[in-house]
Structure formats: structure tokens, C-alpha cells
Fold this sequence. Notes:
Chain A is of the alpha/beta class. Chain A has helices spanning 42-49, 91-97, 100-103, 111-123, 139-151, 169-184, 196-202, 225-232, 239-246, and strands at 4-13, 16-26, 31-35, 57-62, 65-66, 74-77, 157-161, 188-192, 205-209, 213-217. In chain A, helix 2 packs parallel to helix 5 (139-151), helix 4 crosses helix 5 and helix 6 packs parallel to helix 7 (196-202). In chain B, helix 12 (223-248) packs across helix 13. By secondary structure, chain B is mainly alpha-helical.
Amino acid sequence: MRALDIEHLDVDLGGRPVLRDVRLHLDRGELVGLLGPNGAGKTTLLRAVLALVRTRNGRVLVEGRPARPGRSAIGYVPQRHEFAWDFPISVEHVVLSGRTGRLGLLRRPGVADWRAVGDALDRVQLSGLRRRPVAELSGGQRQRVLVARALALAPSILLLDEPFTGLDMPTQELLGELFASLAREGRAVLMTTHDLVAAVESCTRLVLLNGRVIADGRPDELHDVEVWMRTFGVSETSPLLKLVKAG
Amino acid sequence: MSITDFLTDLVNPDLAFLPKALAVAVMSSIVCGVVGCYVVLRGMAFIGDAVAHAVFPGLAIAFVLQGSLVLGGAVAGVATALLIAIFSQNRRVREDSLIGVFLVAAFALGIVIISQAPGYAGSLQQFLFGSITGIPDRDLVLVGFTGLVILGLLLALHKEFVAVCLDREMARSMGLPVFWLDIVLYVLVTLAVVISLQTIGNVLVLALLITPAAAARLLTDRLGVMMLLAPAIGGTSAFVGLYLSWSYDTPVGGIIVLVATAVFLIAWLFAPRHGLLAKRRTRLRQPPAEPDPVTGPAVAAGNAH
């Protein structure tokens, strides 16, 4: 069974078509980069997988079942600026908050919850900073806290929204390695990014999206500059294409 | 007047209104302190202000009909909170504009209603600026009971409220009912405001919600500690404020707010990590940031986004 099946997905936002006939399948062990210009529908696609937007047509299956908020085995890592970093809370409590939905009303976290928090922190190598207030973390550390929060649910699918934005190259590289190893351990990882270099470097597959899926394949299969030109709406002389050819 | 004279007056049967006022002021300050932590952390101060004004027509109706002021205020405040939450679903008009519309409209309605009651100028002043006399026994019970309900609900829904504060999108993806949690929080803010109106007054109640919580935020980086410090600051300000107000015959609401503001200013200057002086000291010393094994040195708080 596939970790994620998206079939003939159409999504409208405010009466405007955003996604049309999107087909995308993810297996465990894959790290898939979702690339496209602004407004291509990358975040909307992630929100559709999370069942946070109404779909007009088509379906999203997570491990063979329709996606439901709080029920599906999905770990979501939103863009870093969505999070209230000035909130007075420690790293470990942020990671614990990832289990709020699963715990349910009026239930307090128990031994199993704290063990999941400890495992998630170990996995992203933040155990040493677990009592640190989140306001004092660097950008790369913040990104890892959000990944740990998603991992606290032991998900089989990980959705990452622009994890590299605003980070320097060494930090991007280390995070890319982390995402690749999370995939190798048997998770399906889907990541939106504007960072072509990091995507080509670390992803096992790339999906080019602009309202619909324009291309889908291994990075070394996507040497046809024409699909990149169509996805990003750039001309033949664009420096973007040089980047792709080099990758 | 010395503090012992004040304590003697508190047990003097001829001054029975004084311990009642103290109990209501301290209880409502404690509740406002805890609720205020969410108001401050979510940046909802304007909503608190709106609700405080919106309870006014309810008070006016209750006053004209000789009903319970707490009950009248609660009904009007909750109605406004619901209206704001429902109207804010339409994204064409922003939430802050809506609040602006409703708070002034409610206040205007209150003034029109209360002007129908004979001798309204005196009672108007009492509503706006608070008073320590004329608190009926049943309000004492009502304030205590409402306060316990508010604190109980905050405790029960703590982890949900925190998750929504941290990041709404993630909270939605976890299946939390974000809209309903917002409504519950608005209603709790309203109730905290309503039980404080009697002693503090309509205009000043916002300070009870914001000032202790903001001072507590400066003193700690832990939410649990903040939620204990804020009610402690609020309750102490209420006690000291009532004592000073009784000693110098000054309006109680104003004095309580000034005491709380003094605590805030002291915290702003002397807080161990976030105070002005502590910041200046660390800037002079420039301690080396602890390097991280994976992503290198930490940046200064608040710079990285």
C-alpha cells in the first residue's frame, strides 16, 4: 500500500482554480521535492493532503484511507513564520504540543507521550536543548524543533513547507541530510521548496507543479529544460536553467 | 492610615462593604491575571477592550431593571464576543475594524439606555470608574463562582489553548476545533471582565487584564510560572490599591491600576533577563553564544525568523 495517493485532485480557492487534475503518489522511503513558482499551489496541495481545504474533485488517500485532520498518520511542518516564537515555552513542551490532538480533551500527557517527545528530540539532535525557551534558538534549531514536533506523532508521512527558507547553506545542507535519513528510515517525505540546489541535491524525486503536475521524476531524469521553463514561466536564458543543468 | 488600622476596618461590622469590596477586587484580579496571560500572548488586548465596552449596555439594562449587574454585563459581553467571532469569518472586513464598530456601538447603546434611568449621572460614574460600596451579597457569590468556572475551564483546555496560540495551522491539522476554542476564550475573557467591573470600573478593567500578565511575561520565560505570577501581581495590586484608596480617599479602580502599572514598570526595568538593565548589561558583556553541534552558534533571541 502506498503511503500517499493523490488522484485527479481539483481545488478552488475563493472561486479561482488553484489545482487541476493533480496526480501524485508517494512510497515510504522517498524524499520528494515539490517545486514551483509562487502561487503554483504548493502549500494548497499540502493543505489538501491534511484535509484542511475543501477539494472540488478527486481524492487523497493516506495509507489507503481518506485523510482526516488529527486522525491520519501525517506529520506536518508548517513554514517557520507561522509559529509564535516569542511564546514563553521550552523546546520539549513545543514538541509535546504536537500530540495535543491525539491526546484528546481533558487528558494529560503520560509516560508514553514524554517518551515520544524524547525520541523525537533525539532524532533531530536537540535533546541537549530540551529545556531552552524557543525564543533563544537559531533558525536551523527552530526548524528542527518543528520537525521534532511532527515526529512526536510517529507519522508515516512527513509534509515540510519551505523548510530551507531563510537559512544559510551549511544549515540547509544539514537539514537536507536529516530529511533524507528520515525518509530512508521508512517515512514518505514531501517537501515544498524554492531552493533548487538543495532539492536537486537531497531529493530522491522532484515534482514540478504549476496548477497541475508538469513533471515528475528523479533529479537526473529532469534534464529537459522545457519542463522547467513551463513550470516557472522563464525564458531560455534564465539563470535558473543553468542551475538545473549543473544539477 | 497604617496597615493595622486598615485590617481593623476590614473586620469592623459597620464597614461590612469593605471586606466585600476587597474580596471581589482580589478575586477578580486573580482571574483577570490568569486569563490575561492568553490575552497578552495572543495579542488580543483590543478584543479585551471591545468586550469591556460591550458589557456596558448590559449593565445599563440591568441597572434600569434593577437586575443583577454581573448577569446583565455577562449577557451583553458574551453576545458581542460571539458577534465578533461570527462576523470575522467574513474576510472582507478585518477583525480590528469590526471590533471598532461593535465596541463603540455597544457603548453608545449603553449611554442611551442608562440616560432613561433617573439620576443616572452618579451611577454612570460608578460604572465607568468603579466603586467599593454597594456590592450585594449575591454578587459576592456570583463573582466567586464565575471565577472558579473560568479558572477550571482554562485549566481543562490549557493544552488546546497553547496549541492554538503556538500555531493555528498546525492546531487545525491536528483536528482541534480552532473556531470553537476561540469562542470559548473570548467568552472567558468577557466573564473575567464582567466580574471585575464592579470595583475597577468599565474604563480601567483592561489594565487588570493586560498589566499583570505583561509584567509577568517580563519576569519569566515559562508559561506555567507566568500564569502564577500574573494573578499574584494582580491580587497584590488589588489589595494594596484598596488599602491606599481607603487611606487617602481616592477612587479605588484608579489606584489599583496605578499600583499594577508601578509593578510593570519595575519589571520592565529590573527583570532578570528581559529587563532594560539586564539587557544593557548583557550587551556590554557580549557573552559567547553556546555553539550547537549541528547548526552552529545560536543567534540572539528574536532575530531569526
